[in-house]
Specification:
Length: about 525
Amino acid sequence: MRRVTLAAALAAALTGIAACAPSVPGQSGSPSSAEQGAPASADRLTIGTTADVVNYNPLVGNSRTDSWVTSLMYPHLMQMDEAGKRTPYLATEWSYAEDGKSATVKLRDDMKWSDGKPVSADDVVFAVTAVQKEKFGVVAGLITALDEAEAVSPTEVRFKLSRPDGTFLDNVGFWLPIVPKHVFEKAPSVQKFANDKDWVSAGAYKLTKVERGQRYIMDRVDDFGPGQPTVKQVVFRVFPDVNTEVLALRNGEIDMIGNVLPPATAAELKNDAQIKLQEIPSLGWAHLQYNTKRKPLDDVRVRQALAHAVDYEAIRNIALKGFAKSSNSSVLTPTLPDYADPSSKEYAFDPEQSKKLLAEAGQTNLKLGMIYDQADPNIARWAPMVRDAAKKAGITIELQGLERNTYLDKTTKRDFDIYAGSWAVMDNPPANLGLAFKSGGFINYAQVADPKLDDLIDKAQRALTVEEARTPIQEAARIIHDQVYDNVLYVETFNIAYSAKWTGFKPMPSELLSILNPLSLASAKPAG
């Protein structure tokens, strides 16, 4: 539940009111003035987080802290650049067969597990097969085309596919952590394997000490294949909330806040010379979806009327404090320039046009309910703005702020008129649009059933290159736009705060990856 702001604590943090800042576990007091003014050291980089590690098994862990810690311990085949393109990591190259029915990945030969055994094709095959057989985690839903994986040699893996799927390599390459077969295969169930002690890892850092509720200490691995990090030790410090992290950053206790800053906090810290803000584009978007199986929302004119009854610019400037961009009402956002459609235009806020469309649809005194997660501070800020703007078009929207589990239950059951929410990571349009808008799609909350759209998404998924997939997926996005199967409000610009004493971070899109990804932390160094 990011961006929860306690006004009093924030005011204290931002105005410099004297306060007792949290201390390093095991020590007393806060840093002295000399310590606060001391230059950064390559010996240690300390990162604030607001949660403990829940699961040390990287194949099932899904909290932010889980991901940050385990991503430094377990390699992926690929990493990602700032534009979302896959880059080599454990894999050196990858390709599809001409018929698209198989794919091959070649691996580095210089990476080792911490017990000395080499990282090999057998480990890759084991990891992907375990996920396929036990059907758990996000990766399982992204590799449905996989028939069988085999180790051709210690450094080559061949994936046999049941159908051509140009999304497969990107999905398995970036999202699947590789785990040591000789350790994980001893567990009756890989999904249930806790992996909570005696870690055998192969990342840039190894986990050496855990003090739950306090800190997680990770030491650098010497002679790490892809390149030895500058910083010797990374420490994750646990704090009760973002506001306490801000105090710790300003007092010199930590070097970075891992959590994304609330927009209001980012706006206040923007002019602090001791703190740098790294802006990170989102791989997802905030949106409104209309239940197309409920009358009168099954009429495209009603959905278009609703789209014209939203003041998008006001939401971005007021609720998000300007830390958001227009997606031009398209599900192909500017964050992924290889797919973005420059011809797409945002729906204009036009209450009179809304009234006209409703009249054409024979609708008067339209009343609808809108569900949202009341714990999401951003949506809690703009939900009333949606309601108030709709009033100008003669539309009554009843807000239903719900406890998160109730909200998720209603969403999963498609029990709503309007759903207000956000998707965090939509990094592969052919794959993602299949999940979200294809008939029967796992997250097709709007219950879209459009044969032409299905055909276009299928065509894009069969394409083996971005160039081949671009045209059908852009056409699919135009249908989604024109039919208002999704009303995209904005693409958020996230802010990560760190001490000006540091430099060299490599940003990746999305709040999860940000500058806490393995490539970024490996390249971080003291400024100057």
